Amino acid sequence: MTYRLSLLDKSPVQAGHTATDALKQTLRLARRAEELGYHRFWVAEHHHTTELAISAPEVVIAFILANTSRIRVGSGGIMLQHYSPYKVAEVFNVLSSLAPGRVDLGVGKTPGGLPLSTSALQAGLRQGVKPDFTALFSSLSTFVDGPVPVGQPFAGLSATPVPPVPPERFLLGASPASATLAARHGWGYVHAGHLNSDQANLKASLETYHAEGGHAAILAVAAYAAQSAAQAAERVADLKVFRVFLSNGSAFNLGRREQAEEFARQVGDNDYRIEERRPSILAGTPETIHEKLEDLSERYGISEFVIEAPPVSFDERLATIELLARSPLSAAA
Asked: Which of the residues 37, 128, 179, 262 could staple to 205 if both were Cys, CB 3.0 to 4.6 A apart?
């Protein structure tokens, strides 16, 4: 089975460098990805961190669109719980009017930061009321489809400008519930395999998506390619993620133990635990990585993968996308 390759970049800020450097590197990756034939280039949203440079993905998307000509560009994703669905629809309609047929609107459910930044982002919302993601997502879908039908709130309202080609829409998730929500609103579903590698969960989510009438799903994976398997294994061996389990049953992945501890402190939770884990990364030669992708493609009917490089140097991120594109098994090359 053939499959497309796309990319997700978080614009990591390397030691001794600035956010300006990181954003320039992200643009370089996007332009190189276009040259290599990758299908999409997505950027992620993170807040109140000196380690990642993108807090406003829509701004970076506009910049990348202006400096490329063919590759699709989008969000992986907009953290919808923080924003007005109408404003998100307007922003992506503007982007789609600037670059018709090249814009992807991906939204996610996670906060993209620690509780303090979440509180600041949601300061304009009703205090003490947790945003209902399902309701926000339904509203966003209505505004993007627009105009709002008679009988619904804001009937007759349109998110303007109305672009000649609307943005392609995706819900980023990692559960059957997210897959159901995407399918029922006619959105694409991107399973976050780079964050949750549980195969039973992947199978259940994709089966649910198709059962609910969803079309071809996308799988996001982390990958690191090198000339030799030993080199790749050695490079990713020390990478870790820290999952903080709060007393209310919720859990979040952070890049450092200190961040996990700070997350618990900001919500005032003293009865938490932190679990150190190895991230799920497809590491090896480009041939072995494509063998794994081919297996996933055939097993689950995946026709497109979104590749995220782990938090390594820019040169290594660039090398990974070049090696994967050069592989004879790559449908993107």
From this structure: 179
